Structures are given as C-alpha cells and as structure tokens.
Task: structure prediction
Amino acid sequence: MHNHALKSYICPICLAIKGIENEQTMIKQADIVYKDKLVMAFIGSKFIATNPGHVIVVPIRHYENIYDLPDSVAAKIFAVARRLAIILKKVRRAAGINLQQNNEPAAGQHAFHYHLHIIPRFENDGYLKNKEARVSAPKERVKYADPVKRYLLCQKKKPNGSI
Result:
C-alpha cells in the first residue's frame, strides 16, 4: 500500500540476513550482535558524526515499513530494542538513547526493509544539531559490536538470560 521499492530492488538487509556479503550490502556478518527466528540486530555501517556504533534492529522477514509490519513482529523488535538500549547504556556508558525509525523516502527511509535505529547519546554530543553520517569500514564496527556480543553471551549463560 505505501511501498516504494521497485520490483527490481535488491534488499541489502535481506542479503545480510542470509549471510551474504557483497557490493550490494555494507552489512558484514561481524556487525551482527543478535539474531533469532524473528529479528536481527547489527552495528550500523553509517557512523553518525558524534555517535558512531549505533545498533539497528530489523525483522528477519522482509517488510518494507511500519505499515506492513505485523504486530507480533513489531512487539519482538521493540522488546529486543529495549534490551539492547539497556545494554548500550551499560557497555557504552551512554547518558541516553534515541530510537529512530523512518518510513518512506519523505521521512528519510533509504533502505526499504523496516529497521529501527538505537542511538546511544552522550552529554553535549551535538547529535540533534549535526546528523552527518559517513560509511564506516567493517573493521571500525567490530569495536562496537564485540562488547554487545560479549554482554549478550554472558547473559545467555545466566538462568532466564534471553534477550
């Protein structure tokens, strides 16, 4: 109903979910910090100037935007986002968290697969004034992915340690 991807669109997020790394997706498997049957979370390849290393949560199944997203999948995305926001506060010592989700090109959606950004915020980081982003090198993202992965691994070993 409110879809903008052309029939020929090759979804870079779907490629990453399938484990494909090629010129059509900037997402690398090392960027993935969480994955289950419904959702996946990874370090975003575009680093925001003062807030690099934010996490993006996506559904495993392709849904272009919030209008297509089933309530059950939306609930799982939000549950995972909430848990990852708490983890980012701890491992990054963030002073706060922004959640950002864009639908349709007019709202800034650039990848036509639903995705929710979890952006760690810091005192006087200037995020709201300067939202410049640059594409980061995969090796730059590892230092942001690894602490989240380690934290989740420790939680998994605890009773009732699901995300």
The chain has three helices and seven strands. The chain has one domain: 28-156. The chain has a mean pLDDT of 93.
